[in-house]
Design a protein that fits this description.
The chain has 318 residues and is an alpha/beta fold. The chain folds into two domains: 209 residues, P-loop containing nucleotide triphosphate hydrolases (Rossmann fold, 3-Layer(aba) Sandwich), CATH 3.40.50.300; 62 residues, YebC, transcriptional regulation domain (Alpha-Beta Plaits, 2-Layer Sandwich), CATH 3.30.70. Helix content is 34%, strand content 26%. A hairpin with a 2-residue loop joins strand 8 and strand 9. Helix 5 runs parallel beside helix 6 and helix 8 packs across helix 11. The structure holds adenosine-5'-triphosphate. Adenosine-5'-triphosphate binds next to strand 2 and helix 1.
């Protein structure tokens, strides 16, 4: 049984379609990422999974339970990271944990949670006085207080400095090590690449790709590559642009930046070699999840036709 199952989910707010048609499955023990531009429908999707919103159409299951119908049972197995604004500034760290523990049949031990999330020293500190990193540690501790089997972490690291972000990543790994399935909503490619077993890229209320980070990066590589170099002799842009592999040429002082398809590097270096031009300080940009994200989510205006249908990115690169 999947930990989370989302089937043809749809949710509108008045005239706004937040979720047009979203389907994906998360296996038990996975760290599954949801990545997408602002307004893509990520939060609405996780709110439907958490039972905070009811879908207009489609089905959601958490460990086989319907968050709309089996509300209480879902609450017992699903931990949801609270948004910061949902805690009063004056509540103390231990108080917050004890309060939330009281909502569960088999809560975790508050003392152990404080120690695990390095909050023992802050047990009597007020929420409003915590640093961003401490607030996030408390948010995760609160999500874990009911000993959940699945946790939803929505933009856990937004607003954190790079050090606190790394600590947060370690927390996510600790959560998974405890056998808990993690659904992670993020804006950061690096985070998805580092943590997630699989990632769904969501755009305009639809899933545009589901794959491993490596599979998505391979899609990015196939979608295009970029090279930057300083030519040893003048090269005309028009000649480079005439190569079928080249899509754009930009000049940055003495440097040329050439982008194109997955064959562009070979095509441009062969072109230069034929003219005995050396590509000095050649740098080939490493393709990453970023490229896949841009390729999959940057789309022309609404008049230019429908969105690509859901696909497995690595299938497209085969
Ligand atoms: N309560 C609401 N009432 C009306 N419109 C809403 C509501 N919540 C979200 N929307 C709209 O639905 C769309 C999807 O929003 P959602 O918050 O799910 O996206 P998101 O991918 O989480 O975005 P972000 O990354 O900016 O948080 C947006 O156009 C948003 O403005």
């Amino acid at each position: 049984m999947p930990a989370i199952e989302v089937r043809n989910l749809k949710k509108t707010y008045g005239d706004t379609t937040a979720v047009a048609d979203i389907s994906f499955e998360v296996g038990e023990g996975e760290i599954f990422g949801i990545l997408g531009p602002n307004g893509a429908g990520k939060t609405t999707t996780v709110e439907c999974i958490s039972g905070l919103r009811s879908p207009d159409a489609g089905a959601v299951r958490v460990l086989g339970l319907d968050p709309g119908l089996d509300r209480e049972d879902v609450r017992q197995v699903l931990g949801v990271q609270l948004q910061e604004s949902q805690l009063p500034a004056k509540i103390q760290v231990r108080e917050a944990l004890e309060l939330y523990a009281s909502f569960y049949r088999e809560p975790a031990d508050v003392g152990r949670l404080l120690a695990q999330w390095e909050l023992t020293d802050k047990a009597t500190a007020r929420f409003g006085k915590l640093s961003g990193g401490q607030k996030q540690r408390l948010a995760v501790a609160l999500a874990m207080v009911g000993n959940p089997r699945v946790v939803v972490l929505d933009e856990l690291t937004t607003g954190l400095d790079p050090h606190a972000r790394r600590t947060a990543w370690e927390m996510v790994e600790q959560v998974r090590a405890a056998g808990v399935t993690v659904l992670l909503v993020t804006h950061f490619m690096e985070e998805a690449e580092r943590l997630c077993d699989r990632v769904a890229i969501i755009d305009a209320g639809r899933v545009v790709a589901v794959d491993t980070p490596a599979g998505l990066a391979a899609y990015g590589a196939a979608a295009g590559q970029r090279m930057r170099f300083r030519p040893s002799a003048p090269v005309q842009d028009a000649l480079l642009l005439a190569l079928p592999e080249v899509s754009s040429v930009e000049r940055h002082g003495a440097y040329l930046e050439v982008a194109g398809n997955s064959e562009v590097i070979g095509a441009v270096t062969a072109f230069l070699a034929r003219r005995q031009i050396i590509a000095a300080e050649l740098r080939v940009e490493q393709n990453s999840l970023d490229d896949a994200f841009i390729a999959l989510t940057s789309h022309p205006g609404p008049s230019d036709g429908p969105h690509p249908t859901s696909r497995t990115a690595s299938e497209e690169t085969r």
